[in-house]
Design a protein that fits this description.
The structure holds 2 protein chains of 2 kinds.
Chain A: H1 2-25, H2 31-36, E1 41-45, E2 48-49, E3 53-55, E4 60-61, H3 63-75, E5 83-87, H4 93-98, E6 104-105, E7 119-128, E8 130-135, E9 151-155, H5 160-165, E10 178-182, H6 185-194, E11 199-203, H7 204-214, E12 218-220, E13 228-235, H8 239-254, H9 257-266
Parallel strand pairs in A: 1-5, 1-6, 9-10
Antiparallel strand pairs in A: 2-3, 3-4, 6-13, 7-13, 8-11, 8-12
Chain B: H1 3-6, H2 10-14, H3 16-48, H4 53-67, H5 71-85, H6 94-124, H7 127-135, H8 140-155, H9 157-170, H10 182-193, H11 197-225
Helix pairs in contact in B: 3-4, 3-6, 3-10, 4-6, 5-6, 6-8, 6-9, 7-8, 9-11
Classes of the chains: A alpha/beta, B mainly alpha.
């Protein structure tokens, strides 16, 4: 029994020790300071989203990557070699920011009320909308409402399908679609082509990337029903960097870079570009 | 160090109904696969010890193929291969279709392990038993059914328990066959709340609630049914 008690105490001490060392290691410099000092900054991006953040043989490329490079430059990073890209999956974005694995997350990161208490968001740098993708010969799905009773791909670890079935969309419509669980959007596209699902729904930017790659068998319906504000995720409380990021985004729109980058990645998908800079959410 | 974040179990409490239904999905598939894999595994074992050479070879081929293929690939073949590409559908309702495809994939996989355990059990039955069965005029099927298998089963209850526990834990990958269970819910909760320690712990405890009793049950059964020689 004594041995067992000792074990519990040792475990408690170990946890407490981790806590203290965690506090001691905390640095007070912000990301903006880091960038100015010429230190390397680490940016979390997606590795599996065509046209947004996609890992290729030589590196990563996409709209988010180009935006990240632009913002980093405005923050004072001299050249691209001072930027390190790291894969940030949807599930570990918060953790990466909290424990400092990455300095900044630019990874199709929608600004939501649920995330605001944990993350400080710069931006949004672009506003996109959730849309539907269907088989090219399917004319029965034209809007959110027409999804009723249709088979909808539900990617685990993504909230896009919940916006449809739970009514968190602009129309406040709960649509009773039949959900088919899947692991990722890649798998959804295969299921869509094979007929196991009738529709795939997520941000138009992501669907656009797939539509460009897949070509004729699929089409994007163009019936937007949410506003997804892609923000720049920062460690909670880093308002200094947040303000600097907002300035960078403002100049990205005023000098035309935003339009140019958008056309570079989404022209083929026929995604319309909104020329006015989205209003900043405010730093907190 | 933010202790509130580290010890915040509220996401689990807020989603208790979803948690229960997700774990119920694991139980449903585990029970179905458990039954089907025992039946299929017994058949494969019978093939492997049968006097017909073709059956023996076929049985050995089955076991060696399935036992050495990753489960994810077997399940992917069932969902993306059979259902999505070859359009082999068990039902037009997606939830039923993918449930049975997941059951199919997991059963054929688990059956290979059941068959190997059972074959080891047959080896524990003394040769004299089979010879005696032949001497009183029983056919191969009769001696297997009435003499060999009952004794073999009783010898391998504990190892079969391990196979079943492994099978229950394997249900966490059936998302690749589009079947939603606890591990998929965990992913959804990670997306919503971030990957936090309490969520991990909650799901680990949930799985232990399923596997520990299974282990105790099989150990108890093994003791009770042991063949005294």
């Amino acid at each position: 029994m004594r041995v067992r008690h000792f074990g519990v105490v040792a475990a408690a001490l170990a946890v407490a020790g981790m806590g203290i060392s965690g506090c001691a290691a905390k640095k007070n410099t912000t990301v903006a300071d880091k960038a100015k000092d010429g230190k390397k900054i680490v940016i979390g991006v997606k590795y599996d989203q065509p046209a947004l953040g996609m890992k290729t043989g030589s590196g990563v490329e996409g709209f988010d990557i180009d935006v990240a490079k632009y913002i980093a430059k405005k923050l004072g990073v001299k050249d691209d070699s001072k930027i390190e890209f790291k894969e940030a999956r949807s599930a570990n974005r918060e953790t990466f920011l909290q424990n400092g694995t990455v300095d900044m997350v630019i990874a199709t990161y929608s600004i939501t009320d649920a995330r605001k208490p944990k993350v400080t968001f710069g931006g949004p740098y672009v506003v996109t909308h959730q849309d539907l993708m269907v088989r090219a010969n399917d004319n029965s799905i034209t809007s959110l409402q027409s999804l009723k009773g249709k088979k909808l791909c539900a990617v685990s670890g993504s909230n896009s399908w919940k916006n449809i079935t739970e009514g968190t969309n602009k129309l406040n419509a709960k649509v009773a679609a039949v959900t088919v669980p899947a692991q990722g959007y890649e798998e959804c596209i295969t299921k869509l082509k094979g007929g196991s699902v009738d529709a795939v729904s997520t941000d138009a930017t992501i669907l656009g990337g797939f539509a460009v790659r897949e070509g004729s068998p699929v089409k994007v319906v163009n019936a937007p029903f949410t506003d997804e504000k892609y923000g720049v995720g920062l460690k909670k409380g880093d308002t200094k960097t947040c303000n600097a990021v907002n300035d960078a985004i403002k100049s990205m729109y005023s000098d035309g870079t935003a339009k140019q980058l958008w056309e570079k990645w989404f022209a083929k998908a026929n995604l319309p570009f909104d020329a006015t800079a989205p209003a900043p959410e405010g730093c907190s | 160090m933010n202790w509130n974040v580290l010890l915040d179990f509220s996401p689990l409490a807020d989603n208790s109904d979803k948690l229960l239904s997700a774990f119920w999905a694991n139980i449903r598939i585990s029970v179905t696969v458990g039954i089907l894999s025992l039946v299929l595994g017994t058949l494969i074992t019978a093939m492997r010890v049968s006097p017909v050479r073709v059956l023996r070879v076929a049985g050995a081929f089955y076991v060696n193929t399935l036992r050495n293929t990753p489960l994810t690939l077997v399940l992917l073949f069932c969902s993306l291969g059979l259902s999505d590409t070859l359009k082999f559908r068990i039902s037009h309702t997606p939830s039923i279709n993918f449930f049975w495809l997941a059951v199919l994939g997991m059963s054929v996989y688990t059956a290979a392990f059941v068959a190997e355990s059972l074959r080891a059990g047959i080896n524990t039955v003394p040769m004299g038993q089979a010879e005696a069965a032949r001497a009183i005029g029983l056919t191969f099927t009769q001696s297997l059914r009435m003499v060999i298998m009952p004794q073999a089963f009783r010898a391998v209850i504990a190892p079969l328990g391990s196979v079943m526990i492994a099978m229950i834990k394997n249900t966490t990958v059936v998302l690749v066959a589009s079947y939603y269970e606890a591990a998929s819910l965990m992913k959804d909760m990670f997306e919503q709340y971030g990957a936090t320690l309490p969520i991990f712990i909650g799901f680990a405890v949930g799985f232990m609630c399923l596997t520990l009793p299974t282990g105790f049950f099989f150990n108890w059964l093994a003791k009770r049914m042991a063949v005294v020689r």
